[in-house]
Amino acid sequence: MSTSQVLVGVPKVSLLLFAFLSVGSWKQVWCSSGDGVKQWQKPPALSSQHNKSLYLHATFPSHFLWGVGTSAYQTEGSWNREGKGPSIWDCFTHTRGANIETGDTASDSYARWQEDVKAVKYLGTQTYAFSLSWPRLFPDGVGNPNPDGVAHYQRLISSLQAEGIQPVLTLYHWDLPLALQQLYGGWNNESTVEAFVEYATFCFQMFGGSVKYWLTMHNPYLIAVQGYGTGVHAPGESRDPASVFVVGHNLIRAHAKVWHVYNTHFRPHQNGQISLTLGAHWIEPLKGQFNPAQSSANVALCQKSMEAVIGWFANPIHGTGDYPASLKDANQGLVPEFSPEERAFVKGTADFFSLAFGPDTLRVGQRLPLFGQVLSMDLRKVLGWIQLEYNSPAVLVAESGWFTNASVREEDTLAIYLMRRLLGQVLEAMVYDGARVVGYTAWSLVDGFEWNYGYSVRRGLFYVDFNGMDRNRIPKTSARFYRQVVMNRGFADNKTSQSIHGQFPCGFQWGVADPVLHVRLHPYSAQFTDPSLYRWNFSGDGSVQPVSGVTLQTRGPQCTDFLSIRRHLHLLEATRASHYRFALDWSLLLPDGDPSHVDQEALRYYRCFLMELHKLGVKAVLTLYHSSHRSPSLGMPKPLQAVGGWLNYSTVEAFEAYASFCFQELGSWVHTWITINEPNRLAELYNTSVDTHLRAAHHLLLAHAHVWHIYNDQYRPLQGAQVTFTLHADWAEPANPYLETHKAAAERFLVFELGRFLDPFLANGGGAYPDQVREYIAEKGHTVGKSPLPYFTEQEKKKLGGALDFIALNHFTTRLVSPRNSPIPNVQPESNQQLGPIHDCSFLNDPNWHVSNLGQAVVPWGLRKVLSWVKGRYGDSHPIVVMASGVDDQASHDDKLRQTYIREYLEEALKAHQLDGVDLKGFYFWNLQDRHTFHFGLFGPAHYQSKPKGSVRAYRDIISHGGFPPEERDTLKPCQMPAARASCAVCINITENIPLLFFGICVFISAAILTGVLVGLVRRRISVGRGRAMCPTSPTRLTRQHWERFAMQRVVRRM
Question: Where is the signal peptide (predicted)?
């Protein structure tokens, strides 16, 4: 089951459950008197992605109640010790078969209550929520109390108070005394209501002086539906649907009576507060049906679903005093009626709203016939719905948490991120929606008996070994995380500081990066290339005919003939980028991999593109080889791929010849050469075995080194460009920051991804792979005998050392890294099976990070981290350039996610430069234009008129200011722009207003033509008038011979 959204179909289940919950039976749209339905009608939720940070880093109020909770039957054990009577759950588990797990011992909290107190103290919470065991205090439900049970709870409460921890007591968490079930039929009978009032009154008398927060019962919805509807829970009854509503009715009446008892007799001198805990799910309309035309009926179904679960009990108590109209309409004749006196008696019997949001209620929500609606784990929206529906009550989140598999022990990494997600939703509800949340209770303190799931899942912050004799409490990593959250009162921003003001140095490379530049020979504008002279209508038939014997001077093909180049550079110019990076198509230029067989048209196209780019004052950064996953040959000439590609050393030699050819033909216009794009990713395509992976990576490094020396020795003196390769450089965070194995995995990932490719050039004179890589491969036993990681020869070491002009990184995201569960098996080279990552790391996404449509996590501070890591490893000997960074955004114009990405990633780059001392020389945004759909481009696809998106202006503004200068104008650092780019502001405005400009030109031309016509008419009338007054002379008539003589004279002069 997905933790974010659960698609639910219509299951085949008993009508006993759904006769009263069926959404399909509602004929009309009925809603409660509250405004909860508006929660779905809001615009997309305001969240941190529309603000400065993509995740809300803030703290909870100082008076916020941090807590942790348990329930009696799930943890106490000692089911028949010291006078305790049997409960319905004792009977339920004992009579269901020999293989049914029970809570007879559970976490043994009855005997180990002192360890529980120590566990709560370890967490540092202000409250500990636990339930009293009704059959432990009253073995028969009524009558004389059990003194041992009373003494136990008095000791526990006193011990908590001594540690400064407030107890939050629940009177009833599902463990009804068996005697009341057998005698009265449990909650089906009003006698149980009266017994509950007596029991509660005793608890107020005995413990009330030390307790300020009381909860009468926990999740009455599950008590009624699961206990008396489906029979999944104790007492396991599955009667007619009416009995379910009778049980719910009695539970509400029992709560109201107990509230009035406390309010009248105990509140004046105990000054406590009392409520009941209600469970909730959350449900969203069918995806894509959020517009008014489609969503009205869908939203109504969602509202009814909420009213059928939490509203069933909340509406009488927190709302109108009666059941929701939709619930009564759907279950006519089944839902009991409140008299006017009962409504007044029930209404308002809660001092705060106590909410349970966890898997138990969501699991039941899965069984609802939702007809396409989607269950969602969204606590923020539940809190927003409560705020609208019940007039902004104070809310205590009395149960919140998820579960892990029973096999998970202390290393519950996923639980950390799910807790962080839920807490983040609470914080956003408070900050953005104004929800009045007063406290949060993590569930649960220790692993325990999870009802009908037994011990197959765990929910505790402390691990308990149920197979051992000892039930010691061992803190899980989620306990360490929650402890830190409580200590910090939330999520202090420890990854990034506040916004930074400053500018990047003059000469900073503001770039745009693209993959392979496709050669588009058409459309082609061949003007002034025809040597013939034509005459029109010579024979009177309106035809155009060449003049024989006349040959005009023509010009050769020019770069301006390629209209695609002009259009492409027109977009680039609008960004104000100083550098443009693109890749050549190796397989197109040299189809056979041989420089003697060249596609001359493609070469001419690339040469023209570079020349026109040079005219704009934009410096070219050219990638020789950018592999393509879509190409069967991976973007290299097919003959080379046919012989093994980078597994064959002949490809290294062919790449040297190709590079030398490009240097010679195109080098005059190139500022920087990228030999190979992301060899660390390219090597993964040769992952059929450890040996093939390592050999491909080895050859890629040698290919770069040889090409670097070719350029350095033969072309650099004349051309002066720089040569490097780019690495894909995601930052790695340990998925579980409390585990050393995860920290080691994150560091290993970085060494394998970056150090393995940079160390041979930069570390200790170069020529060697990192020791950590060689040792890890040997330790994992990937091979028998000789290590598969090649060694460089002495000659190769000399070529590698220093053969890198600067460090070029492509950074897009941050990964959460953990070690894989098992080592990578060694697969023979001839096998087609693909290995996992050679670094043995697994990846996880933080649910709190904003993720793009393609699944890219947006984590700005990761850029600063990876830049600092590279600086720490290689010092300042080589500058760093971020050669590609970007995010996909589906917006056609107002791409807010990309605009935020540009701002925040560049801010982190500036922090790395100014605060961490990273010698950062440039930043290139990926990429210029979308091809088919809206993805990474600054401009939309051509078939969408190549319209600029909002990110164009965002990036251009940052470039114009050189970064993020303070508002004071006198602090701006001027940088001289190239003359060819000084007047680009006009071009930018033209680009952004092409439709308006075209319309204006049309209007101007039309006005000019109209003016000319009017002027001509006026002059003609004047001429006619004058002609009548004067005697005109006959003009000399020009004959056909005159016109031909005049035309030939012009031709002669031109020749």
Answer: 1-31
